[in-house]
Specification:
The structure is a single chain. A hairpin with a 2-residue loop joins strand 2 and strand 3. With 708 residues, the chain is mainly α. A 6-stranded mixed β-sheet has the order 2-3-1-4-5-7, sandwiched between helices. Strands 6-8 form a two-stranded antiparallel sheet. Mean pLDDT is 83; it is low at 50-58 and 625-635. Helix 15 runs antiparallel to helix 17 (384-400), helix 23 crosses helix 24 and helix 23 (466-476) packs across helix 30. The chain is elongated, with a radius of gyration of 30 Å. 63% of the residues lie in helices and 6% in strands. The chain contains 33 helices and 8 strands.
Length: 708
């Protein structure tokens, strides 16, 4: 009776909150990583959120709204998690969201092809006494295998309605939200949500003893399920310990847990928390025994397409060659396919600059527009097709499931340097942008691994560096540009791995075990891939209209003044400008690497954003590209022709290496400071990356002089 009272109190509070929301239903999406939860969110709410095939892509809750059946739904996509324990930031985040935000309904998104593992999270949601609807996602794959499931019976056993869905195609989504409305309006009384997972007589006795003590505090019953608190307290959950041991009967509660741990240990010969986990899996297996019929043994034993692909892709001899061949093909495609639209944009930029030069009166404003804005922003804009192609290829790899394999094949190497494959996931994300990659380290349970990973992420080559690679590799190494860029990416990975090994010697903390998950391969939907590519393209254009435009104007201003009209040539005038003074001051530091003062200035501006290196060079070399450019290759930009006249191939290679490795952009620096909890490690990252970049670039330059 007391449990029913407890449930009625929670339901009453939820009903009062729902009334205040006035036909707005707040729905939380909860599920394991790789269950298709974010895909369901995207197709339901129409939100432009990226879908990834590994844990760590969704690190914050995403929110979207839409209308269905006369209701307005507020849909919250919570981070993927395997349980509601407090071992990782994402688990704690999900649990706090469910208790503090108290959604009207929870949609538990389950991968129907892996029911036993996914249902463990479901049992914990049941413990929390939440109103739940289960979305049996990826049901097309379940049907294809020939498996059978009595969804109505399983729903009765779990105390919730089950709706088969295919978020990739939208199948079952309307029915899912119709069911949510029925549950919200209490039109499905047979599916009562107040079931209890039966943990067995002895464990239930332990739960009941602690629950009775916790219930003595009336206030806590409106926020938490006291049964959930009792179970988590028995599991020695640190966060729940803080809540429970703050209650008035603290001493008695602690003593009772100690007694029950001792009693269960003597009776079951195992730790109490392990016994609770075993009991939940026993409940799951029992429920599936009654409702789930796998395909005939002949079909079940047949290897799936995923198994056959993985036999090649994760083979110990073939995995690495395939990985690097794939990267090479991506870069080759980026150069080859991107060359044509790059020429078109270059022509448009040139025509626009020529039109301004012809029809605008001479003066400082004309110089600002032509040599500052058009030369600076235009030098980066021409590489937009290449950047979008790169994002397209990366998105295809992520959505297909291959990126998870890349993390898996790196797992053994990562273990040797004191990390695990999960740390490679944010490192791979760094190929797109270092900032979300640093933020994705939140999903790594061990602080040691999390810290080391965020410190080496800046060595992963983000797309902000790609314009410089295309610029210089295309100009100085046109016949092997793809191999040069591949070499830069590999060099970044090697330096990151070696740095992790070095830094790991000074960060001594206990690491936690982690099981690497390999989701099944799926054919990416073109809608998702193109939407992601377009979103990244918009971000790139937004950056050009913001920081790159502003910084290009600043660089032009510093290069225009003072005494602009006192010199005969542009080169002489720039050398005696403010930017020339700055470049000359720092040139001695970079001279051993083969950089002149203009290249050194580009390095300095790249601290703001790596794209600024190219825009700065575009401003610095404006007007020089057409003056006697020898053997200009068709498709070269004016900036490339200017660089070919003044820079050696060895210096160009050294320059790309330095930009690859040195100081992360300001945004990444700020992200490291935030995620590491202070300035100490952020400053260490800044100093260490600059020193590593100088040493490696110097070695590359000296070696290149011998062959180039």
């Amino acid at each position: 009776a007391s449990d029913c009272d407890d449930a009625r109190r929670v339901e009453g509070e939820m009903a009062r909150m729902a009334a205040r929301r006035n036909r707005v239903i707040r729905v939380a999406l909860v599920g394991n990583p790789n269950c298709g939860k974010t895909s369901l969110f995207n197709i339901a709410a129409g939100a432009h959120e990226h879908v990834g095939n590994y844990s760590g892509v969704t690190v914050d809750a995403k929110e979207g709204t839409f209308e269905h059946g006369g209701y307005k739904f507020t849909l919250v996509d919570l981070p993927g998690t395997y349980s509601l324990s407090a071992f990782s930031p994402e688990e704690l985040y999900v649990r706090k969201s469910l208790t503090e935000e108290m959604p009207d309904i929870v949609v538990n998104v389950v991968d129907s092809s892996n029911l036993e593992r996914n249902l463990y999270l479901t049992t914990q949601l049941i413990d929390m006494d939440l109103r739940i609807v289960m979305a049996l996602n990826m049901y097309d794959e379940f049907r294809k295998r020939g498996d059978e499931l009595d969804t109505e019976r399983l729903g009765q056993l779990l105390g919730m309605p089950l709706v088969p869905t295919v978020s990739r195609t939208g199948e079952g989504i309307d029915r899912l939200f119709d069911t949510l409305i029925h549950v919200y309006e209490r039109k499905q009384p047979p599916l009562c949500r107040h079931i209890h997972i039966n943990h067995g007589v002895e464990l239930e006795q332990s739960i009941a003893r602690l629950q009775a003590l916790i219930k003595q505090d009336q206030g806590i019953r409106y926020k938490y399920s006291t049964r959930f608190l009792a179970i988590k307290y028995l599991e020695r959950d640190k966060d729940i310990e803080t809540v429970v041991e703050g209650l008035p009967g603290r001493e008695e509660i602690i003593a009772t847990r100690f007694e029950e741990q001792k009693r269960i240990g003597e009776l079951l010969h195992m730790q109490l928390d392990a016994a609770l986990v075993d009991a939940k899996y026993a409940f799951i297996q029992g429920a599936l025994k009654e409702t789930y019929v796998p395909a005939a043994s002949g079909l079940a034993s047949r290897r799936t397409p995923t198994d056959r692909i993985d036999a090649v892709v994760t083979n110990k001899w073939l995995a690495f060659p395939l990985f690097f061949c794939l990267l090479y093909l991506i870069f080759q495609g980026t150069f080859t396919l991107g060359n044509y639209p790059m020429e078109w944009i270059e022509w448009l930029v040139g025509e626009f600059g020529g039109w301004i030069s012809t029809y605008m009166a001479d003066g400082m404003l004309k110089d600002l527009i032509v040599d500052g804005i058009i030369a600076g922003v235009g030098s980066v804009l021409v590489f937009l097709p290449n950047i979008m192609l790169l994002y397209l290829f990366i998105s295809l790899l992520e959505d297909s499931g291959y990126m998870a394999r890349a993390a898996f094949i790196m797992d053994k190497i990562m273990h040797r340097i004191g990390l695990h494959g999960k740390s490679f996931i944010p490192m791979i994300m760094g190929f797109g942008c270092n900032v979300p990659a640093v933020m994705a380290t939140r999903t790594i349970e061990s602080r040691r691994s999390r810290l080391i990973t965020m410190l080496v992420i800046p060595f992963m080559s983000c797309t902000g560096r790609m314009p410089l690679y295309i610029l210089m590799a295309g100009a100085f190494f046109p016949r092997c540009a793809s191999l040069v860029v591949l070499g830069l990416y590999v060099l970044g990975i090697v330096v990151a791995v070696l740095s992790a090994h070095l830094v790991g010697r000074f960060v001594k903390e206990e690491d936690l075990p982690f099981v690497m998950e390999l989701p099944p391969y799926r054919i990416p939907t073109m809608k998702s891939v193109f939407r992601h590519t377009w979103e990244k393209g918009k971000q790139y254009l937004h950056k050009m209209s913001g920081i790159i435009l502003v910084c290009s104007v600043i660089i032009w201003f510093l290069g225009y003044f003072p005494n602009h009209n006192d010199y005969d040539t542009v080169a002489e005038q720039q050398e005696n400008s403010y930017i020339g003074y700055i470049g000359k001051a720092i040139e001695p530091v970079f001279a051993p690497l083969g950089f002149d003062w203009k290249m050194s200035t580009g390095i300095l501006s790249g601290i703001g954003a790596k794209e600024l290196v190219v825009s700065t060079l575009g401003v610095m070399y404006s007007g020089e590209g057409e003056e006697g450019a020898a053997s200009a290759v068709t498709g070269d930009t004016p900036l490339q022709r200017a660089l070919l006249r003044t820079v050696t191939p060895a210096a160009a290679l050294s320059y790309m290496v330095f930009v690859l490795l040195y100081f992360p952009c300001i945004a990444t620096f700020a992200a490291i400071r935030q995620e590491s909890g202070g300035w100490r490690w952020a400053l260490f990252s800044a100093v260490y990356t600059v020193c590593a970049a100088w040493v490696v670039a110097y070695l590359i330059y000296r070696l290149a002089l011998l062959w180039l």
